[in-house]
Amino acid sequence: LGAMAALADRISRTKVRRARDGKLESRQSHLTMALNGELGEERPVAIDPTLFMRQSETIETAAPELNLMRTAVCAYFTEIMAKFEIKRLKDETIFDWDIYGWMCFIDKEKG
Q1: DSSP 8-state secondary structure symbol assigned to residue 95
Q2: pLDDT in tens, 58-71
Q3: Which residues lie across from 47 on neighbouring strands?
Q4: Helical ranges in the chain per DSSP H
């Protein structure tokens, strides 16, 4: 899942040129502009890899390629956070449910 998230993020952030009637347009999609912080006054957003790194550091893997993939995913999202100077705040990160208590853990469901 981490590799799919990294690929989707990279594709969504890529600025592309559209060809229409034989002419190139440099217009970007609204998703690309929103992720890169170029849509209005919003700041860029990214997936926070902190919990992914913490939770996946002790997973047993049968193939060394999975460890390489985990390292590449962690490096990619860490570099995105650094490039756009994204702080680990609620409004600047995506998929940070564990940090702000949005997940339903068994301990929280006990009466």
Answers
A1: S
A2: 888 889 899 999 99
A3: 94
A4: 2-13, 30-35, 50-56, 64-83, 106-109
Q: What is the pTM of this model?
A: 0.74
pLDDT digits 0-9 by tens, 86-111: 887 666 777 655 665 555 455 544 54
The residues near 81 (Cβ < 8 Å, ≥ 6 apart) are 46, 48, 49, 88
Q: What is the pLDDT of residues 1-33, one digit of tens each?
A: 889 999 999 999 988 777 777 777 777 788 888
- Cα R_g (the chain), whole angstroms: 17
Q: Which amino acid is at 74?
A: C
Structure tokens at 106: 């068994």
Q: What is the mean pLDDT of the chain?
A: 80
Give CA–CA dist 6/43, Å, rounded.
20
Query: Distance (Å, rounded) from C-alpha 102 to C-alpha 41?
Result: 27
User: Sign of torsion, CA 32 95 85 43?
Assistant: positive
Q: Are 46 and 36 in contact (CB under 8 A)?
A: no
Residue whose pair of structure tokens reads 């997940």 in the numeric block? 103
